[in-house]
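Recall the central idea of this unit: under ordinary conditions, the amino acid sequence of a chain determines the structure it adopts. In this exercise we apply that idea directly, starting from the sequence alone.
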Amino acid sequence: MPKVVIYTTAWCPYCVRAKALLDSKGVAYEEIAVDGEPALRAEMTQKAGRTSVPQIWIGERHVGGCDDLYALERAGRLDPLLQA
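Accordingly, the structure predicted from this sequence is:
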């Protein structure tokens, strides 16, 4: 199973939704909180090319944000990514 990394902030409802989907699938993930951490947010922005949270990686693949994660789920493409 590939490593899942999610950059979040505590107050972000999209972060909560993204983590809920991963939790519902029993997926372990590394959560990196960027609130009050400008260096971590800068690292996320540099890697993702986006400043919004959450930003999610499955293995080496940048999935994007919450809407992107749910779009993969609706398309039936999330489980195969998680099993790769």
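The CA atoms of residues 31 and 56 lie 9 Å apart.
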